[in-house]
Amino acid sequence: MADTRTKIVQRAVKEIQDGMNVNLGIGMPTLVANMIPQEYNVLLQSENGLLGIGPYPREDEVDPDLINAGKETITTIPGAAFFDSAESFAMIRGGHIDLAILGGMEVSEQGDLANWMIPGKMVKGMGGAMDLVHGAKRIVVVMEHVNKHGESKVKKACTLPLTGQRVVDCLITELAVFEFTSEGMVLTELQEGVTLEEVVRQTEATFTIDPALQ
Amino acid sequence: MKKGKVVSSITEAIHDIQDGATLVVGGFGLCGIPENLIVGLQEKGVTNLTVVSNNCGVDDWGLGLLLANRQIKKMVASYVGENKLFEQQFLSGELEVELVPQGTLAERLRAGGAGIPAFYTASGVGTLVAEGKEQKEFDGRTYIMERGIVGDFALVKAWKADPLGNLVFRKTARNFNPVVATAGKITIAEVEEIVGIGELDPDEIHTPGVYVQRVIQGSHYQKRIERLTVAKQ
């Protein structure tokens, strides 16, 4: 399990380029922050009102007025900026954030994403996910390929309520990487040690294979 | 010091909040919430409130206090996952809930405060959020119409204020507070420090006093932390 997540996170960090403004979702996407190359000038956005998230604070630096969107205590990096929630989502909705890396429950072959609600379970709310999927220039979803019952989370159509329709640009799992194009869902990479047969077996969605892989 | 908009007690600050009022409330999680005003409302015991706020506190702090006291009839929020009481009251049908994407909630408050009755956004298109809402295409992309929100009262927490109601917020405790401050018919700001007129640099004021009707010096700030995380040594 831990190994699966590490594999996904290690691949996800490659989506981040020097100079980008990036929003990382809560959970597995947050782990990506620790792996961004030191020499990169990347600004991480927190939708509660900060561009330029720093590392977790030392005990003597903890400030209750300084938290991230996951409500964890954090610090800022030099050059950081604070702003209010309307401004925060203006920069998201207005296409000023280059990349958002989000967790997922299901992704469909059309690029639909479900990641906020399981019917019959208590609804917690969508937070900023529905705004991010329509605002950030590129949406990368990171999730495990199958659920704990062994069923594929990469679906023909999502069965859970959607966060957004046709919003995913790239899906990274422990088995493979898929891009979503005007021609549909394309397998572009196999994770190390994974065979094409395995990906086909574990994927409910219909996809094509990038010629470079064949 | 000139008194201006400064009131002398929490009781006075909230004296005209009645049963059935709509309150818009600042804060993100437990960060930057108007702690003293919420405790004041709990003690006052007003009921049937509609509360618009990003979150609903935790079981024993913030807006969770008003839930525990069954003072909230309807909650409009983007994320309510930190609160067991919320779940119980929602499932039993006691509590009405409207979940709104966070950016849409912020913009609805901004629009309300800016005199804009409605606007279009792509957030929520093709989801449960779009149900029953007008859809319109602009430049080949689909949007849904969302309404501005104005509350009877806005409750905010700022770091500093002057007697004119000019406000300065601190770090991420700013969050929803400046937009909430614009979206109340009567806006009440509780603050950590009140300074004299002219002591705030005009370049540094986040919320101009025109939006604020009452200022109250808060006390005994708990500033609870929901998830204490520190660097590994």
Topology (elements, then pairings):
The complex is a heterodimer of chains A (214) and B (233).
Chain A: H1 2-12, E1 21-24, H2 28-31, E2 43-46, E3 50-53, E4 76-82, H3 85-93, E5 99-103, E6 106-108, E7 113-114, H4 129-135, E8 138-142, E9 154-155, E10 170-172, E11 176-181, E12 184-190, H5 196-202, E13 208-209
Parallel strand pairs in A: 1-2, 1-5, 5-8, 6-9, 8-10, 12-13
Antiparallel strand pairs in A: 2-3, 3-4, 6-7, 10-11, 11-12
Chain B: H1 10-13, E1 22-25, H2 35-44, E2 49-52, H3 64-68, E3 72-77, H4 84-91, E4 96-99, H5 102-113, E5 118-121, E6 135-138, E7 141-147, E8 151-161, E9 167-168, H6 177-182, E10 184-194, E11 214-217
Parallel strand pairs in B: 1-2, 1-8, 2-3, 3-4, 8-10, 10-11
Antiparallel strand pairs in B: 5-7, 6-7, 8-9
Provide structural commentary.
The complex is a heterodimer of chains A (214) and B (233). Chain A is an alpha/beta fold. Chain A contains five helices and 13 strands. Chain A has a single domain, classed as 3-Layer(aba) Sandwich (Glutaconate Coenzyme A-transferase), CATH 3.40.1080. Chain A has a ten-stranded mixed beta sheet with strand order 4-3-2-1-5-8-10-11-12-13. In chain A, a hairpin with a 2-residue loop joins strand 11 (176-181) and strand 12. Chain A is globular and about 50 Å long. Chain B is α/β, with parallel strands linked by helices. The chains are: A alpha/beta (214), B alpha/beta (233). Chains A and B meet through helix 3 and helix 4 of A and helix 4, helix 5 and helix 6 of B.
